């Protein structure tokens, strides 16, 4: 059975923009990694006639239809009622789900209203998907040569249910016995279009493993997915493809899977038993925020000075008045002094500085998006990097921080290689 999968998200709040449809993104990623092709995303409000119309269209083009949302206790939660009606089936009470709901209300010492029993209703003859994080169970129905799967809307309930019960159901139904291995390769400093151009022949010829480029906030990721009856063979296929890809774009590679540039920077510092401190003008503390968001950062991160004004650059950071008068705060010279002064003040192995223009108006005769990053390594000449970034104010600040992490990582790797 070749899968043609459609995801139908049910909920007026999605159409109103009150919440983001993160469920569809999650499901598409998981399904793709497991060899199930998602062809369509549909969003429909809490209206039975419009949902019926959406299902009618989906049935004409898809043989796997996955619904998220509309399984709750309120009147506008109508997904299972509508699907049952379309399939000509009844709703029946799942006793295990009902007991779980009753136990919950006993535990929290609240009386259970009658409408909460609605959450225990499932479509007759369906395969029930247990909800270990909430009340309403999910369900899967194999009918009229299609598979229908109903999942709850809250991501905290939907994700674990799908991973633990939904995916195994699909694998059993579709006879998928292959081991499926995925790996995400993360790149920074190269645009999505350039990376794709560099490996376009590999993308065009992909079979097993598959290559899926994904763009992020100033980053590019590639998801490699291999399938084989033998898990070690699937890993070998991914290893070979990764080696081939990185022979072309490996200069921009920085890590795997869910890691971040901040994670990798901290890892490299710990490996070398080195410390870092920061002087932040443009970024306003965002660099230190990214580092301290990771648990146990104090062993390598000494601290930061947010020196947003020239007065603070002079009085606290000891940047010379001459530098500011002659070259300005947005300059190579200022970035150098900021980096070296914070390194000395904090007694750290590395000092990094950020100064530039994130706003819409020129400053000191320099265009918006002009950014200087200073890097001061102990016993080494201070270096600076000039960037010309585009985008929103916050977008420029975020990318500046990422560049800072990336530049230090590369410098550390170069020093080790030497």
What does this structure look like?
The protein has 418 residues and is α/β, with parallel strands linked by helices. The protein has helices spanning 12-15, 22-33, 48-61, 79-87, 95-107, 155-173, 192-198, 200-204, 231-249, 261-272, 286-292, 310-315, 321-326, 332-346, 393-417; strands spanning 5-10, 38-44, 64-68, 91-93, 121-123, 127-129, 138-143, 146-151, 179-188, 210-215, 219-228, 253-256, 276-280, 301-306, 350-356, 370-377, 383-388. Strands 2-1-3-8-7-6 form a six-stranded mixed beta sheet, with helices on both faces. The protein has a five-stranded mixed beta sheet with strand order 14-13-15-16-17, sandwiched between helices. The N and C termini lie far apart (55 Å). The model has no long low-confidence stretch (mean pLDDT 92).
